[in-house]
Design a protein that fits this description.
Two copies of one chain form a homodimer. Chain A has 659 residues and is an alpha/beta fold. In chain A, 28% of the residues lie in helices and 23% in strands. Chain A contains 15 helices and 28 strands. In chain A, the strands form six sheets. Chain A has an eight-stranded parallel beta sheet with strand order 19-18-17-16-13-12-11-20. In chain A, strands 2, 4, 5, 8, 9 and 10 form a six-stranded mixed beta sheet that branches. In chain A, helix 1 (97-110) runs antiparallel to helix 2, helix 2 packs antiparallel against helix 3 and helix 7 (226-239) runs parallel beside helix 8 (294-306). The longest helix of chain A is centred in the first third of the chain and has 21 residues, at 116-136. The termini of chain A are far apart. The interface between A and B is large, with 59 and 59 residues.
Chain lengths: 659, 659
């Protein structure tokens, strides 16, 4: 048994933030002030000390600082996350016999008791500190301390005729300071190490725009190229988005290629689905020749960067039958007894254009390494955003391995999980390392649903590892409420996404152009979906809601309160078609209140009730508000206010409260 | 790296009950039905299975049973805690390829697809199961299974001219049952083992009575003996208590002995404090000669048992200067530089009659072992209840060691923690193994305080390891609100203790006789405290509230709802001096509603509001209630009822609802 085990009298527990007993790192963004708290206490009444230990993954050494006692055995520290990547932290606490002794000495001395034996005890404590100093080895550095402590020990041991001087020394700040530099920590208790991943600011606050590069050609019917994408970048920049992501850019398979509208057989001029990856031109590290060259792609990444846009690509780990892996690594796929390779299926449906990897293969380590290398390859081309297709159909631990490896090399990388699956699976992917995740926002339409879901996402421990990204549409999902094609409905959903979530995105230009026809009645599939064919978009259509999007993105950039998910607060309304919520900065210098008409078709009005007390606003005095969407100014007074919204005028309000 | 690591595709998380990631065992009582839940899921869409694993500490083998899926990746099992002691449990889950295959085969077959290749895949799965059977070794036991599976594999592989028969076999219940007996669990995921401590029923439901054996003599002024205690046991039994505990029964030190009312010097006839343990007659394993012999003590324990009373003793790990340990083990105490031993102190106060153990001694392992042996010694004398004095002044890990050792040998043992200290320390002691703990009930007087504190104790994770025991007084604590000596106040506090908590206790006869004089104004110390002198009690005093106590204890035994802490529910009242709460059994067959007048001096009345919907009671129909304290019957209707309480008549109501 560890001979010190029974003498570690201090408990350190409930160190937070913490997820699953430290199994996973919590997530924060660059520039965040991170508060760490711990419960720490010892038996008895001795005085204890508690240090916060921190190191960035790039540092071998721990930095220590005293935690501040908050009362009730709660200790707190705070630090600035000023480096990307992984921080490790811990808490170490110990009984400080010198402090305990000093406290008792003062009390006894004040009570006029004889303290001669106490001084001898102090001499032993100071001598022990002196021995620790001399054993450190860096004797020259601490020579002065050693000298001081030796002399102090001697004076306490032999106060001679000046016991008052010895007592003064014993209680002096200087002796305390010197002793505090060399505490006796042999029986200290240290909490297991915890971790925080610090992501770039864009992980916490971002506006995404997805488009198909092949649909960017100037002339209708032509296959778009990366060069064509340059002007689309300008357009997206004007709209105010800061992340663009492209569906897979790799060669598309020929075997079992899908035709327009997912037809099982393709015509010769059909371009196929970009997710059927791999063909004669290569696999996951190659580029579809029609889009351009690797150099073209790097130019596009660079062009995005100069526009302060992060260009992301789609990572879809599956293969068309023509993928080079199929021949090079047959053991990465499951063989059927007839010698064929197991294609994807959802019995009785067959997806013969897709071979899934067999992650139960004996050769799984090579498979993991290769797929990680694929992502590292694109990271080396400058890509820092990866939208991962269907991560929930690959083993969880694989993602932890891949993301961990990539982020160790490129800590600014953002991984967006495309997982519209069961909640526990989505949350697990967040814990494993995905920076952001798609969310159920896409299907939430009722006031009670929004409140319940976004309270769960922003006010429970889920938020430590799961950052939702709100998409009103994707190439796979045209929600039924958009089938009407009504621009007010598209505007309303855009407003909700952009203000409920600090991270949101749209699949455009389909979204802003109010593309709305489903392939079949009530289907969520787009008719003439870009997934299977080229499209040509009229960006100047009068139906476009681009002006609203531009305005909303501007507001998001100007209002810090909208750049955070955790400060979301819902407020009562007396009309279930009116959703009212606010976001505010911690110091309440920025308070933004949204009121959204969930109806989208009819005028709605009612009363909202605002938490003026929380905001420090006097009920008896008028306060200024501005509707940031219209620029209109009003004066309100008291917590209860009347609101009226006409869908044909505006989808909702974004009020800035001017306190 | 474990070559299977990457292939363990199933996640098992959030298995509950669970405390601090399994660092501590949760607590339950004998006869409890224990529900275990887990979140478990895998990537993709394969069918998985999830087993619950359980073993009692007395069994080497795990018992397995399938967990029931509840939807949303939640799995559940339930078992009866029918043995005292420690259970270990875990959850193991895996992907079942046979189930997945069978599901797909059925779908394809129903869709009329050719399944010949699927049958070959099935043949491989069945062959693999056959290999597993033959490798188990107990071949004779499973010979029939082996034969069946070999034949089935062959038929699936070579269906010949009867593919329909092969399909029928493939989908048969019998093949499924046989396959389920030998699943492929090589890539199974197993959750770390968790633990539950099953305590005797009395750990969950008990009424304690503390008395000083030395104050039981028939004749005033004489030192009571264990023989005198026998008639006191009859009295306590009549009152309806089922645990009696005695302050320390060991020889009392002479050095620095305290006199009456804690005088620093004792007179020759002063009996001293029983907590100053150790004298010429011995230490923690010996008995104070004035009380009797070890044989007398064993007789007393046995006499209690025949009355269905558990007799407990006080464990106070500290020594008088006369304790044999002081000479035998000087290294278990801290030496001062002048050669003296460090006495207890709270500077500038000195407690020179008490030497604390130095748990930081090099010899801590011997100290731990000896103190554990002390408890085991008394356990061998038949003691199964230990009230531990000041556990928070000894290292936490020491208690885990001691309690663990004792309960391994005597799993029915109950340890009550005497820790009126900071809440996190009290909760830690509960986690470490204390069966019950004193609580802040003693100082809670306001309605809001009761609701806040008891909600924390009974409705948060605290309850998994912390069982409060509610004491309106102790020999150390005469709370200020009792200083009036008013029997209605003593009755009110008794009623609260006995119905808010399933575990409660009093220090008597002081309590039922309304002993109320403090040593000084506003002090919590009793005047003429039994801690320092003999007392003679007039059990027949007309001021005694023994009749009420007897009634309340009867009611507690008759109403199962009062025997549990977790079912406590507070209800609104429109008068802050009226506290209303209920307890009910899970099946609502027993619903008991308390209304207590917190004033204690003045009549109070008001309306209470009951959750009739929760209890399945129709708002529009009258229902019967009975006041169990008075036997009066009423009819109520609807959730809102008027209540009026006169302290001189009754301290509160205990209503039984008759649905």
């Amino acid at each position: 048994m560890n001979p010190n085990l029974g003498r570690q009298r201090v408990v350190v527990e409930n160190v937070r933030p913490q997820v699953d007993a430290g199994r996973f790192a919590v997530k924060r963004a660059l520039g965040d002030r991170i508060v760490v708290e711990a419960d720490s206490f010892a038996d008895g009444h001795d005085i204890m000390r508690c240090n916060f230990l921190l190191r960035h993954e790039s540092q071998p050494q721990w930095t220590e600082s005293p935690m501040q006692p908050q009362g009730n055995d709660l200790w707190r520290s705070e630090f600035l996350a000023d480096q990307l990547g992984r921080y490790e932290y811990s808490v170490e606490a110990w009984i400080d016999h010198f402090h305990t002794w000093r406290y008792g000495l003062r009390k006894k001395h004040e009570a006029g008791q004889d303290v001669s034996v106490e001084l001898l005890i102090g001499a032993e404590l100071v001598s022990a500190a002196h021995r620790r100093v001399t054993q450190i080895g860096k004797r020259n550095l601490f020579a002065e301390d050693a000298k001081y402590l030796a002399a102090a020990a001697k004076q306490l041991e032999e106060p001679g005729k000046q016991p008052a001087d010895a007592i003064q020394l014993a209680l002096s700040d200087e002796l305390l300071a010197r002793m505090d530099r060399f505490p006796d920590r042999q029986f200290a208790t240290r909490h297991p190490t915890l971790a925080i991943t610090v992501d770039p600011l864009r992980a916490r606050f971002s506006a995404w725009y997805e488009f198909f590069p092949r649909s960017t050609a100037t002339r209708r019917g032509e296959h778009g190229t990366f060069k064509d994408c340059l002007s689309r970048l300008d357009y997206v920049q004007q709209l105010g988005f800061d992340v663009v992501y492209l569906p897979p850019i790799h060669p598309v398979g020929e075997a079992f290629r899908k035709g327009k509208n997912n037809a099982t057989s393709a015509r010769t001029d059909d371009v196929g689905s970009p997710w059927a990856i791999g063909g004669v031109a290569g696999g996951h590290r190659e580029i579809l020749p029609e889009l351009g060259t690797l150099a073209d792609f790097r130019s596009l990444v660079e062009a995005a960067r100069t526009r302060d846009i992060s260009l992301g690509i789609d990572i879809a780990f599956q293969c068309s039958p023509d993928h080079p892996y199929v021949k090079q690594h047959p053991n990465w796929f499951r063989a059927r007894p007839d010698g064929s390779i197991q294609y994807a299926e959802n019995p009785p449906k067959k997806y013969q254009d897709i071979f899934p990897f067999d992650f139960e293969t004996d050769d799984w380590q090579a498979l993991w390494n290769e797929l990680t290398e694929v992502v590292l390859f694109w990271a080396r081309q400058g890509v820092r955003v990866f939208r991962v297709d269907n991560p929930h159909t690959k083993p969880f631990d694989f993602w932890e391995f891949l993301i961990g490896n990539v982020k160790r090399n490129f800590p600014e990388t953002i991984f967006l999980s495309e997982a519209f699956t069961r909640p526990k699976i989505m949350y697990r992917l967040g814990k494993l390392g995905f920076t952001q995740s798609y969310s159920y926002f896409t299907w939430r339409t009722l006031k009670a649903e929004f409140i319940e879901y976004f309270t769960e996402l922003t006010q429970t421990p889920v938020r430590e590892t799961f950052r939702p990204n709100l998409w009103p549409n994707t190439p796979d999902i045209l929600p039924e409420y958009l089938h009407s094609g009504s621009p007010p409905v598209f505007s309303m959903r855009l407003l909700l996404a952009a203000t409920l979530g600090a991270n949101y995105g749209i699949y455009g230009p389909a979204y802003e152009l109010c593309e709305h026809l489903p392939r079949e009645h009530k289907s969520e599939e787009y008719l003439d979906s870009e997934k299977y064919q080229l499209r040509h978009w009229d960006l100047n259509s009068p139906r476009s809601i681009a002006p609203l999007i531009t305005k909303v993105n501007q507001i998001r950039r100007q209002q810090p309160a909208l750049q955070n998910d955790w400060n979301l607060d819902f407020h009562p309304t007396d009309n279930d078609q009116l959703l009212c919520y606010s976001k505010s900065t911690d110091d309440k210098s920025n308070i933004v209140v949204m009121v959204v008409n969930l109806d989208g078709h009819q005028e709605q009005h009612g009363f909202i009730t605002l938490p003026l007390d929380q905001w420090g606003i006097d009920h008896s005095r008028p306060f200024e508000i501005e509707d940031l969407l219209t620029g209109a100014h009003y004066q309100w007074q008291g917590p209860r206010e009347y609101v009226e919204l006409h869908p044909d005028q505006q989808p909702g309000h974004i009020f800035r409260i001017r306190g």
